Amino acid sequence: MSVAFAREPSWAPRLFPPAARAPRAVQTARMLLDPQGYARSLRRRFGPVFSLRTYPYRGALVCAAGAAANRAVLTDHARFTGGDAAALLAPAVGAGSLICTPPPLHRGHRKLLLPPFHGARIACWRERVRELVRSGLPGLLTGDGVAVRPWAQRLTLDIILRVVFGVQVPARATAFRHALDAFVATGNLAVLFLPNPLQCDLGPLSPGGRFRRLRAAVRDLTREEIAARRAAPDRARRDDVLSLLLDARDEHGAGLDDAQLLDELTGLVLAGYETTATTIAWTLHLLAHHPAARDDLIADLDAGSDRLLKATVSESGRLRPAVHHAMRTAAHDTELGGHPVPRHAFVAALFSLTHLDPELWPRPDAFRPERHLGAAPVPYSLTPFGGGLRRCIGVSLAQLETETVLREILAVAVPEPAGPPETARLVSVTMIPAQGGRVRLRARRSHPAA
Ligand code: HEM
């Protein structure tokens, strides 16, 4: 059991913010099946800070919504610590990855990782990303109803393999794709949420055994890439993230060894591909179900502007953020929103709920990209990439991918509904469309590029 879970305080109503009385299994099921709806009902009942008694927490997950509580959890690093809180993900991403690294190590570690993800560096990949999107388009433009998320997962994984890992050989990318698809399959990662004894390796057919075998396959492939990149004669000229990280040094001249790189790359791929694919799927699905917003966006893009493009991606990230919440742990006994929070409790900045706060976002359930065209939003009212010292380092890459996909698709096709609007489901911390974000892409009769 990870340290964070071992020291988590047990549930006692007077120690935590208020919680529903429903059994833990019921609260867990409601959260998985309707993450925004259930959280909203608890907020109506208890206010912006409440406890969720769900698995796998022994005590409770303290949830914070609203700009003030969101800001406190994301930025008051003395009270709410990152790293430990991601302990749940450590068996998947690797305990040495940035996501799982607690302070004070986190700061130096992040400094090494940030430069290759800087916006200007990522912009150099624009053409390559566009080529990858274009080569994937036939799989989507079938004229039939199609689930966007699986399509986008393949694309975003290919992009990460190219941009981050520097994989250039198609057969290697295919091997990675197969290994990762099996590893991140919902059933496999659900192991992380099982009670501890069931996570153990009880033979190849047990969930724990299967998890370890699939993880080993991904890590073996990653190890091979690290070795190949270290040995590459053209390393100095390569601009993939891995090649840059091999030469990264901190102020004491220390770099990342292979074990750290292995955890780091596993963390980057797991943090980066499903989240971006889910964002792409939600955005196209929402556009299909909001024809006025969709037509305005197409007209704006045809006119050579990207104002509405950025506003549309912001609105999709507000209404259906791919990551439901960011996690921290309480560094000491403290309070939040006037409620007690015990030391070592898990605390979640529930931005999926903050994004639906009617005081911050009038008519919060409406999909209205134009709301992002005016003044900047209230600080910490919109945080799809988290915030503070642990804000997502992949923002520029994710935005480049999402914007390129929308640009390329909307130049040739119009997304239309392929069924009713989909509800959200929670898988780990990712909030996915229940049917994969189905749309039908109708070919455009005329467009400027034709
Ligand atoms: C639309 C796509 C994405 C979304 C919505 C997203 C969202 C997030 C969120 C909410 C966090 C937690 C922030 C916090 O705790 O305050 C995070 C962290 C992180 N993300 Fe992303 N992410 C996306 C894409 C990516 C990509 C493409 C990469 C890299 C390839 C990436 C790498 C990371 C890493 C390494 C962290 C940990 C940062 C740290 O702990 O210092 N993400 N992301």
Characterization of the model:
The protein is α+β, with helices and mostly antiparallel strands and 450 residues long. It has one domain (3-443): Orthogonal Bundle (Cytochrome p450). The chain is 48% helix and 10% strand. The protein is built from 19 helices and twelve strands. The strands form four sheets. It has a five-stranded mixed beta sheet with strand order 1-2-8-5-3. Strands 4-12-9 form a three-stranded antiparallel beta sheet. The model has no long low-confidence stretch (mean pLDDT 92).
Under the CATH scheme, which architecture would be assigned?
A: Orthogonal Bundle
User: So how many helices?
Assistant: 19
Helix content: 40-55%
**Please, what is the average pLDDT?**
92
Structural class: alpha+beta
How many strands, what sense, and barrel or not for the largest sheet? 5 strands, mixed
Q: Could you give me the name of the CATH homologous superfamily? A: Cytochrome P450
Strand segment count? 12
Q: Compute the number of structural domains.
A: 1
Shape: globular
List the quaternary state of the chains: single chain
CATH topology: Cytochrome p450
Trace the largest sheet across and list its strands. Answer: 1-2-8-5-3
Small molecules bound in the structure, each named once = protoporphyrin IX containing FE
The poorly predicted ranges are none
